[in-house]
Design brief:
The protein has helices at residues 40-55, 63-73, 80-101, 105-109, 128-140, 183-201, 217-227, 246-253, 271-275, 291-304, 319-331, 345-350, 376-379, and strands at 3-11, 17-24, 29-33, 117-125, 145-150, 178-181, 206-210, 234-236, 258-260, 281-282, 308-311, 335-339, 356-358, 361-363, 391-394, 399-400. The protein has 402 residues and is α/β, with parallel strands linked by helices. It folds into two domains: 3-104, Enolase-like, N-terminal domain (Enolase-like, domain 1, 2-Layer Sandwich); 109-367, TIM Barrel (Alpha-Beta Barrel). It has an eight-stranded parallel beta barrel, surrounded by four helices. β8, α8 (246-253) and β9 form a beta-alpha-beta unit. α1 (40-55) packs across α3 (80-101). The structure holds D-gluconic acid and magnesium ion. D-gluconic acid is lined by residues 37, 170, 210, 212, 262, 314, 316, 339, 389.
Length: 402
């Protein structure tokens, strides 16, 4: 089955998405997500100028060989732009292979290991009370696991607090918005949030929290300790992880489970974290970590060390990524949880999909392939709209980690 054509589709049904469509001489086509939030055009150029020309004429069934060709053949390895481009190709090829076999993708990967994929939703509010109410609304919708974030007194634009409603969208201005961060205020506030949530919502519900890289290792250790009584499912990105060894310090001091990896793009980014069992959940996902092919390698390493998966699933990961991730999640033996931030109705209309939510679980559906398509005519009605993620500064103006 020969690849005859590949095209990049950029659309903005409420937010920007980049999608790669690969067509074959047998009429079967596949699609893959290539969205890199705030840096979309870099991946578009990488695909159009450097990847598509070498794909034409190749056998679409040779997924591994094409992956190795794009990874080793570029000479310049790894990095979010390269790995997102490779992921888009890889996802589209797995879609094609499963469609050609007439099977849902999870069957090709090894079949279902569970009945459904446990997901967590995002509850947030301007203060603790609003967040507690939002957790209640998510419970009413059937969620069994909920991430909770709240505004912090004395902090303008704390991470994770939406500007209203169900959809939290951090990339919302053409030039980066400047937010202010205060670690002392946050460290005093976060334990109070979870104390209230446990008091109001009980022990059964799983609670998660994203620190979004704001703390130093010793501060992260302190927060982890302070949160222990509230038994979190995980504390995410408590400190930047380029220096994987930094997690040794956090780990020595707290039993709060740790999750890391949404910005990683290769197994090498998390090798130490996994092999030294410094984390409990690895958050790499299909689009930013080289597709199904590479994610499988990361999960395989993690399985040896009892580290479970907990893939990133914010709205900047398109329904195409979500669909592929859910097939992966249904199969992967060491599955932990899947993040699920709902897309808007406009986005869902552009990307018709087979996955469905029921009682706190998502199921990828049984449509052949990964079960997500793109309505190209509708996509064309939403032109690209440049948006970037915010930056954070300390109260004295020092640039910090957003
Ligand atoms: C999460 C994330 C996101 C990111 C976003 C950046 O855990 O869902 O931290 O909200 O900030 O994906 O593009
Ligand atoms: Mg996160």
């Amino acid at each position: 089955m020969k690849i005859t054509r590949a095209t990049v589709i950029v659309t903005c049904p409420g937010r920007n998405f980049v999608t790669l469509k690969i067509e074959t001489d047998e009429g079967v086509y596949g699609i893959g997500d290539a969205t890199l939030n705030g840096r979309e055009k870099a991946v578009v150029a990488y695909l159009e100028d450097h990847v598509i020309p070498v794909l034409i004429g190749r056998d679409a069934h040779r997924i591994e060989d094409i992956w190795q060709y794009l990874y080793k053949g570029a000479y310049w390895r790894r990095g979010p732009v390269t790995m997102s481009a490779i992921a888009a190709v890889d996802t589209a090829l797995w879609d094609i292979k499963a469609k050609a076999a007439g099977l849902p993708l999870y069957q090709i990967l090894g079949g279902a290991s569970r009945e459904g994929v446990l997901v967590y939703g995002h509850a947030n509010g301007a203060d603790i009370g609003e967040t507690a109410d939002a957790v209640g609304r998510y419970r009413d919708m059937g969620y069994r696991a909920i991430r909770a974030q709240s505004g912090v007194p004395g902090v303008k634009g704390a991470y994770g607090v939406g500007k209203g409603g169900l959809y939290y969208e951090p990339a919302d201005s053409a030039l980066p918005e400047e937010t202010v961060w205060s670690t002392p205020h946050y460290l005093r506030h976060a334990p109070k949030l979870f104390e209230r949530l446990r008091a109001e919502h009980g022990e059964e519900i799983e609670l998660l929290h994203d620190v979004h890289h704001r703390l130093t290792p010793i501060e992260a250790a302190r927060l982890g300790k302070d949160l222990e009584p509230f038994r979190l499912f995980w504390m995410e990105d408590c400190t930047p992880a380029e220096n994987q060894e930094a997690f040794r310090l956090v780990r020595r001091h707290t039993t709060t489970p740790l999750a890391v990896g949404e910005i990683f793009n290769s197994v090498h980014d998390c090798r130490t974290l996994i092999q030294e069992q410094l984390i409990d959940f690895i958050r790499t996902t299909v689009v930013h970590a080289g597709g199904i092919t590479h994610l499988r390698q990361i999960a395989g390493l993690a399985a040896l060390y009892q580290v479970r998966t907990g893939s990133h699933g914010a709205t900047d990961l398109s329904p195409v990524c979500m669909g592929a991730a859910l097939h992966f999640d249904l199969w992967v033996p060491n599955f932990g949880i899947q993040e699920y931030m709902r897309h808007t109705e406009e986005t869902d209309a552009v990307f018709p999909h087979a996955y469905r939510f029921e009682n706190g679980y998502l199921h990828p559906g049984d449509t052949p392939g990964h079960g997500v398509d793109i309505d190209e005519a509708l996509a064309a009605k939403y032109p690209y709209n440049p948006k970037q993620l915010p930056v954070a500064r300390l109260t004295d103006g020092t640039l910090w980690n957003w």
